[in-house]
Design goal:
metal ion binding, 2 helices, single chain, 4 iron, 4 sulfur cluster binding, Alpha-Beta Plaits
Length: 83
């Protein structure tokens, strides 16, 4: 699954620079995660870095974007192959 940011986000700006895939960006009101770019840090780290730094714990798994570890790894390979 990719991750999502809930409306509990306080716009503290700590998650965005931690994302190795640039999947996090500022939305209209709170930060958002692009599910096409989120790999839960598979291929980069053992744990999602945004979840590790979030002070309000507002970055859960996105139930509408379920993916296996293999699918996340394949997405990582596709993203990292871009020029």
């Amino acid at each position: 699954m990719s991750l999502m940011i809930t409306d509990e986000c306080i716009n503290c700006d700590v998650c965005e620079p931690e994302c190795p895939n640039n999947a996090i960006s500022q939305g209209e009101e709170i930060y958002q995660i692009d599910p096409e770019l989120c790999t839960q840090c598979v291929g980069h780290y053992d744990e999602p870095q945004c979840q590790q730094v979030c002070p309000v714990d507002c970055i859960p798994l996105d139930p509408s974007n379920q993916e296996t570890e293999e699918q996340l790894h394949a997405k990582y390979l596709k993203i990292s192959a871009k020029p």
